[in-house]
Amino acid sequence: MQKSLIPLLEDAQEIAGLRRNQLQDNIVASIYSTAEQIAGEVVSHTSPKRQDLDRQIDNILTSPIWGFPIMFGVLAVVFWVTIVGANIPSNLLATGLFWIEERLTDLFMALNAPGWLHGFLVLGVYRSLAWVVSVMLPPMAIFFPLFTLLEDLGYLPRVAFNLDRFFKKAGAHGKQALTMSMGFGCNAAGIIACRIIESPRERLIATLTNNFVPCNGRFPTLIALVSIFIAGSVSLSLSSFIATLTVAGLVVFGITVTLAISWLLSITILRGELSSFALELPPYRRPLLGQVLVRSVLDRTIFVLSRAVVIAAPAGGLIWILANTTVDGASLLSTLAGWLDTPAKFMGLDGFILLAFILGLPANEIVLPILLMSYVCGGAMTELASLADLRHLLVEQHGWTWLTALCTMIFSLCHWPCGTTLLTIQREQRSRRWTLLAALIPTAVGVVVCVFINNLVRLLDLV
Amino acid sequence: MSATTTLNCLSNGSFALVKEVVAEGLTRRRLLDLGLVPGTKVEVIRRSPAGDPIAFNIRGAVIALRRDVAGQVLVSPWK
């Protein structure tokens, strides 16, 4: 009796299964016909000109010939404006803030404050704050509004449209181009943005590779290093041009690494089917300049800067203590850096640089300030008001070459994500394993690339 | 009834009427949710500089679909 029922049940399920699909289709179809009917009654199109204009813009921005050159051109212009524009206010800020440092020193002298208190508060906490503000603020205040402008115009989905083929080849989702764009602002935000990717596999790929896009915490580091090294070595008219090309080149390198690692992941530990992909290309909008300014300055610049300041203040104090606590005649800072020196040298860096990256784990914004602090704490140099002074500090006193700068920039692009980003990955994925992998993958890439470039350049005797 | 083809085979600038979505599961849901129900008129707008994805005008919205996904929508060319 039971046996004879089984085939009947199977038949019944099969029929019901077909019906279920049919039911779904009918529901969607009737929703659309009702919507069409309502829209027909209440929506009126006055002119098709709007849509035509959008198409004409798209004809240019996504054209087979101009699409890619325009994309890189826009990227380059944004960097160029940032680099050129940030230079002067950065110097002014540095001069002003170090003038205040001297007055603070005078004040501490006048009050007969103990030397360690002055050292900790003024040379440690205040100075690192001054660094963070003068190095970070001007590029952020220029870069963020420009980027928000692009966002508001509706250009970013076009970038995703242009690049999707490459993401498809890499086994990744087209929307990864959008999460990467968010990563330019902040990698933690980029990780959260990965929620827009429905398939867990492709979301994970986007999450694990988001860090290869330099966030604004690392941009100023890149821009400052480029400016320091290019500004002094070639004529002024050329310098901003070459600096722009270098930064744009680094970003393109980061995108290439993203695609390569995405591809590697999708053929190894994250194998699977490509999920469906639908990307809307929304109409272009005239950006509201006031809103752009408010949003980019208040929401982003102030937010990122205050985060950097909150972390930089204690870090600055800590560095000063490390630099001024001596055990067996050597400061703790130089002992620590000494331990790291051999592996760091192999990667084209030095112990202090690697130490700065490690101490900068809470926030990438403070890596360069920490590095400068630890260089300055050891030596006699006090005046660091201009980029030329910085160049002198790095090149003359600590033996930097263009190779050191290049390796530092590459390691900045490819190393563990900052603490906030790691916490965000843990929260989004709820897995220690993926969080650990998110830190290991970029670090491994950074180490390999730095070791390779350093040894290749030395082998070829280019330095 | 004119010949049946798939959405990815149409050239830029042409129009078609949706006959049926043959995808299954999530992809089917998403395509239907975009409004690709039988009888809908779709315009092929452009292809990405790299050839894929393809942008369509679906009910007034510009939507880009990858070639393999668009290949799961059966259409009959219009006009």
UniProtKB/TrEMBL annotation, chain A:
Q: Say which species the protein is native to.
A: Sporotomaculum syntrophicum
Work out whether the entry's keyword set contains Coiled coil. no
Task: Return any one Pfam family short name.
Answer: FeoB_C
Q: Which gene encodes it?
A: feoB_3
Residue ranges of every copy of the Ferrous iron transport protein B C-terminal domain listed in the record: 248-296
- GO (cellular component) term, any one: plasma membrane
InterPro entries on file: Fe2_transport_prot_B_C, FeoB_GTPase, Gate_dom
User: Which protein are we looking at?
Assistant: Ferrous iron transport protein B
Keywords assigned by UniProt?
Membrane, Transmembrane, Transmembrane helix
Limits of the Nucleoside transporter/FeoB GTPase Gate domain = 134-228, 306-425
GO MF terms held by the record: ferrous iron transmembrane transporter activity
Q: Which residues cross the membrane?
A: 65-88, 108-126, 131-150, 177-198, 219-242, 248-270, 302-323, 343-361, 368-388, 400-423, 435-457
TrEMBL record, chain B:
Entry GO MF terms = transition metal ion binding
Superkingdom of this entry's organism?
Answer: Bacteria
Which InterPro entries does the protein's record reference? Fe-transptr_FeoA-like, FeoA, FeoA_core_dom, Transcriptional_repressor_C
User: Key word Iron present in the record?
Assistant: yes
Q: Which keywords does this chain's UniProt record carry?
A: Iron
Domain Ferrous iron transporter FeoA-like positions: 5-77
Alphabetized Pfam families for the sequence: FeoA (PF04023)
PANTHER family per the UniProt record, alphabetical: FE(2+) TRANSPORT PROTEIN A
Q: What name goes with this protein?
A: Ferrous iron transport protein A
